[in-house]
Amino acid sequence: MAHFTYTPEGVCSKLIDFDIVDGKLHNICFQGGCNGNLKAISKLLEGADAQWTIQRLRGNTCGAKPTSCADQLAKAIDQALH
Description:
The structure is a single chain. By secondary structure, the protein is of the alpha+beta class. It has one domain (2-81). The chain has three helices and three strands; from the N terminus they run βββααα. It has helices at 35-45, 50-57, 69-81, and strands at residues 2-6, 13-21, 24-32. It has a three-stranded antiparallel β-sheet with strand order 1-2-3. α2 packs antiparallel against α3 (69-81). The radius of gyration is 11 Å and the shape is globular. The mean pLDDT is 97.
């Protein structure tokens, strides 16, 4: 198991923690941001394939921002894998 911590940029969330075990995501936790939505994202992605998650979430925006917490999670996972 590998644990990762990522500091997102341009979003309300201040920190993203997650684990990758055999290419699958576990224990995703956002600090700050839209609490209910980010808890839901974390629950929905528990056990999801890391590469699949990157493909699905990359480029997602929030309002007028060019990124979102979901997009930042995709960037965090990509960074963790490479």
